[in-house]
Please model this.
Amino acid sequence: MLTYLIVFIILYILYFDFRPFKFFSKNEKDIEETNLSFPEDIHKYKVTVHIHTEFSFDSLGKPSDIKKAMEVNGIDYVFVTDHNNMDYKYFEDDRIFAGIEKNTDDGRLLLLGGELPVISHPNNFEFEHYKWKGEFKKDYLYELIIPKDAIVWNKALTFATLFKNIFLFPFYRTLVRKWTNLIPFDKWMELYFTRARGENIVGGLDLHIKLVLQERTHGILIPSYKSGFKWVCNQVYSRKELNTKEDVLNALKQGNLFISLNWNFGDFFGEKDGKYFIPGESIEEGTNLVCKFDRKKTLKILKHENKPIAITEKSNFQYKIKEKGFYHFEIFEYDFKIGNLYIGFRPIIITNFFKAGE
Model:
């Protein structure tokens, strides 16, 4: 009996640690290696959106904890969005900005910096006040990725994954190991294109500090800003230096970013005749879309209107666009593959959209 139990536990751990499983055939006929480099005059910033502090009824984080986590992780800007208040404004500085998360007649809404509207939790259908009932306006942002939404999307799968991570905790020292394998990424992208095509996307953290052991200035936080800031981060591009809240808000509003999961970063841009484009911008016919991401065991997918047009494991490649519409890159990591079967297949980057003829 004990032998059967041990075998069951091993199979259980293996299945939930290496799921999901995806079949993909490479499509490299229209891509080519590139020697293009990311333009030196375009600046890069790491921006964290949608976190909660002690001014939210369900969080305990302090301003000093945020500043320390930013320093450790090299985060440039943070937007605090406490529930139903902007009390963090009394602690604002030139890098951390107060906003608000609130329920409206249309559904759950963020106001970054108290100004920029973001449709929050668009993939969370568990609570009525989360469900967006209003119009998907072009001047709103769409919070495409939030860890909490992945957790509540399938509670049984979440519980099974957590249970697996408890078994593995002595080896990896984390309960959020491979949390991204909970994201129903294809379904979320289908929902976006069905409901909100044209809105720029952003990644939100929705991090609440639930437990604090604060015997010194920077105590133990569970979960912590230090680790949480690495789960979801927005890599923002800008043609000029960002020095003010208004500068950062404008870059977010224009969609000049890609969403990084678990601290993965690359370069994604367009080029034609020496002219460069960044995500969120309109591109011209014949533009080469460029992906530069040098990491093994990753699959890069370029999509047009959410349909794959290039699938490759190449580190650096370009694709010359042929049609109007929305283009974006998705990057996935995997544990290993057998033929065209990718095992442990999970998202790590999604870019905002390059808009051709829009």
Summary: The first strand starts at residue 21 and ends at 23.
